[in-house]
Amino acid sequence: SAYDTKTRQKVAVKKLSRPFQSLIHARRTYRELRLLKHMKHENVKEFMFCHSVLFFPSLFYFHRYLVTNLMGADLNNIVKCQKLTDDHIQFLIYQLLRGLKVL
């Protein structure tokens, strides 16, 4: 995570290394950016902006950083850090299904 000084909030940063090294990588990058840009739902990360950094000498070698709002926790940490009750599991599945419904 990082701190956005303009909005004064913590944000999540995802590094996309060499997103255009092949046609498949380019399609995946485009698809992810396009989907995030159009989704507005509390169970889906909100796209904020994308930043590119070019590395020389190659004009085709650069990293793209995808910046989204920071979610309260990630599912992996929730599952590993605590024993889940049936109510927890039911709530998590409900939240996942709400997010999938948007897709």
TrEMBL record:
<feature type="transmembrane region" description="Helical">
    <location>
        <begin position="47"/>
        <end position="66"/>
    </location>
</feature>
<dbReference type="InterPro" id="IPR011009">
    <property type="entry name" value="Kinase-like_dom_sf"/>
</dbReference>
<dbReference type="Pfam" id="PF00069">
    <property type="entry name" value="Pkinase"/>
</dbReference>
<keyword id="KW-0547">Nucleotide-binding</keyword>
<dbReference type="InterPro" id="IPR050117">
    <property type="entry name" value="MAPK"/>
</dbReference>
<dbReference type="GO" id="GO:0004672">
    <property type="term" value="F:protein kinase activity"/>
</dbReference>
<keyword id="KW-0808">Transferase</keyword>
<dbReference type="InterPro" id="IPR000719">
    <property type="entry name" value="Prot_kinase_dom"/>
</dbReference>
<keyword id="KW-0067">ATP-binding</keyword>
<keyword id="KW-1133">Transmembrane helix</keyword>
<protein>
    <submittedName>
        <fullName>MK14 kinase</fullName>
    </submittedName>
</protein>
<feature type="domain" description="Protein kinase">
    <location>
        <begin position="1"/>
        <end position="103"/>
    </location>
</feature>
<dbReference type="GO" id="GO:0005524">
    <property type="term" value="F:ATP binding"/>
</dbReference>
<keyword id="KW-0418">Kinase</keyword>
<keyword id="KW-0472">Membrane</keyword>
<keyword id="KW-0812">Transmembrane</keyword>
